[in-house]
Amino acid sequence: MRVATRSIYSSMQQNLLRLSSELSRLNERVASGKKVGRPSDDPMGVAQVMHLRSALSQTEQYGRNIEAGKAWLERSESTLSQVLDVAGRARELATQMANDTQNAQTRAEAATEVGHLLDQAIALANSELGGRYLFSGYATKTRPFAKVSAGGIETARYDGDSQSFRIQIGNEEYLEIGKSGESVFLESGLFDILGTLKKALEENDGETIASQIDQLKEAEDHLSNEIADVGAKAARIEAKETILADLNLQLTERISQIEDGDYAAMIVELKGKELAYEAALASSARLSALSLLDYLR
Amino acid sequence: MAHQRAMEVTGHNLANVNTLGYTRQKAVLEAVGPFSTDRIKIGLGVRVGSVIQYVDPFIAGAIAQKTSALAEYDSKRTVFSYVETIFNETSGQGLNQAIQAFWKAWQDLAANPGGTSERTALLERSKALCTQFHTMRSDLQSVEKEMNNRLAGSLEELNRITRQIADLNNRIVAAEAVGTPANDLRDERTRLVEALSSLVGISTFENGEGSLSVSTQTGILLVEGIHSFSLSQEGDQVYWNGIPADVSQKLTGGKIGAWLDIRDEVIPEYIANLDELAGTLIREVNRLHQMGYTLTGETGKNFFEDFRSPPQTPNAGDYTGAAGFIRLSTDVDDSPGQIAAGGISGAPGDNENALRIASLETSATLEIRKWSYRNRGASVSSELRIETLNEFYEELVAEVGLLTEEANESQEFSQTLVDELGKLRDSVSGVNLDEEMTELLQIQRAYEAAAKLITTADEMLQSLLEMR
Fold first, then answer.
1. Engineering a disulfide at B94: which of A13, B89, B310, B393 sits with its beta carbon 3.0 to 4.6 angstroms away?
2. What was the ipTM of the complex prediction?
3. Which residues of B230-246 are buried (b: 16+ CB within 10 A; e: fewer)?
4. Shared domain check, A166 and A106
C-alpha cells in the first residue's frame, strides 16, 4: 500500500498520544492505589461499592446504638443487683425480727434500718445514666420515684410511664433495653413491703413482720427475673456486636476488592506501557530519519 | 515546456505534503497527435493533457459519516466526564454520603431522643443534605445551559461553512465549465464538508456540473447549488431558513446532535430522577414525622417544607423541581425541639417515631418512579419501583458511569475508524515525499533528454549551416 508521508507522522503522533494518555491513567491509579477513580471506570462496581458503603455505615450505626444500649443494660443490671441486695437484707432482718424473742426496743432499731433500706431502694430506682433516668419509661427527664406516705405506710409513688425504650440493632431488628419503673419496682411491690415492714416493726407487730418474709421472697424472685432478663439482653446484644464486627470486616474487604488496585499487577502493567512508549519513541526517531532526500546529493 | 508544467505540479504536491485534506495531483502527459507527411506518421511531442486528482469518492463519503460519529461521541465524552464529577460517589463526598449522614443522625436521635445536641446535629445534617441536592440540581442545570450556548456557537459555525460551500460551488462550476478541473477548490470544499460533518450528520450529492448539494441525514437542505440555508437558534428551538418551526429533533449526529441529546434527553432525565428522589424523601419523612410528637407534645408537624408540584400531564403527581426546593419546614428550622421523635407523647425518652423514620433507610416498601427520557424528551415515561432510596440512587450513579463508559468506548471506536479511513484516503490521495522525488528525477531526466535533443538539433543545424 502507498503510504503518504503525512500518514507516517500523524500515526506516530497518534500512537505517542495514546500511549502517553494510557501511561498517565495508570500512573494516576498507582498513585491513588484505587482501581476505580470515577463511575465510568467500573459503573457496576461503583454501584456495588455505594451499596456496600451504605451497609457499612448502617452496621457502624448499629454498633454505636449497641454501645449505648450496652451501657444502659450494664447500669440497669448493677442497679437491680443492688436493689436485690437491699431486699435480701430486709428479708434477713424480717426473719430475725419475726422471732418472739425480739422486743419493742430491738424492733424499733430494725425499723430505722428498714427505713434506710427503703430510702436506698428508692435512690437506686432513681438511678441516672448520662442525665437520663433508667426506670422512668419514656419520661427520662422525670424523676421516677418519690417517697410518699399512704395510711401511715411509707412507700414510693411512680411518676414515670409504662413505656420501654427500644434501640435498633439491625435491619428490622429492635431490642427493648429500657425498663419502666412500673414493671420492675411497682410489680415487685418492694416499696410497699418495706413500708409495711417498717410500720410493723415500729408497732412491734410480730405477725405482720412474719408475713412480710414470703412477700419479700416473692419480690426478690421478681427482681431476679428482671436481672436475668437484662442479662439475657446483654448477652444477645454482645453476640450481635460480634456479628456486626464480622460483617463490618467482610464489607470493608469487599469494598477493597472492588475499589483497590493490585499494586503488583498495576506496576507490571505500568512497566509494560513504559516499554511500549519507549519503543514507539525509538521507532519514530528511526522512521523520521529515513528519506530518499538523504541519498540524493 | 510540458515537463516544466509537470514539475510545477510535483512542486505543488511537495509544498502540500503536510496540508490537511490535500489531494495529490498529477500532470498527465500525452503525446501530441501525429500529422502525416506522405506515408510516415510522426508524433509532434508531448503536452500536459490535464492535471488530475487521486480521489476515492467512496472513502471520502465514509470519512464524512464517521467524522460525525466521532465528533458526537467526543463531545458527549467530554460533557459526561463532567457530569460524572457532579455525581462523583467514588470520593465518598457525594449525595450518598449526605443521605447516610442524615439517617445516622436520626439513629443518634433515637438513641437519645431528648438530647438537644442530637436534635441540633440532625437539623445540621438535614441542611447539608438539602444543600447537596440544590448543588447537584443547579450543576446539572448549568450543563443544560452550557449545551444551549455551545449549540449557538456550533450553529454559527455551520452557517458560515454552508455559505462557503455554496460559494465554492459557484466557483467550481464556473471554472469547470471552461474545462479546467478546479482541483484545489474541490479540496477546499471537501475539507469544509468534513468540518460540516463534524457539526451534524450530513449527506451530499454532486451533480454533473460539479455543484455539491448538502443536506442533513434527516433531509434538511443546507446547500443547494449556490444557495445556502441557515439554521438559527430561537430560545430552545432551532429554525430552518428563518421559518419559525422547531427542527432540532431532526439534527442528529456530530457536535450539534451531541449538544441536543445532552440538553433534551440526558440531563433532563437525571434532573427528573434527582427531583423524584428528593420528592420521595420529603413525602416519606413528612408522612412519618406528622404522626410523631415534638418535645412539647405537638403533633402533625412537617419535617421538610411540604412540596407539591402543580399537576402536569402526562407527569401528574411528579416532583419537578423538588431537588431544588427541598428545605426544612419552618416548624423545625432552628427549633430542634420541634422534631417529632416521639411516637406517643413528647416525653424526652420517647424514640418511637425517630426509630420509624430512621428505618426508612432500609425500608424496601417505598414507591418511587424511575423516569426515562427518550427521543430528546419527546417521549417521557416512568416506571413505578418499590425499592430503597439508596438503591434508586445507586442505579442512577451506575447509569451515569455506564453512559460515560459507552461514550468513551464509542469515541475510541470512531476515532480508530476515522484514523484508519484517513490512512486509506492518504494512501490514495496523500503525498509521499520519496515518490515525488522519484517523479522529479524522472521529469528532470526527460527534460534533460529534451534539452539534449534541442542541443543535438542545434548542432545538426549548425553543421548544416557550416556547409558551403
1. B89
2. 0.79
3. bbbbeeeebbbeeeeee
4. yes
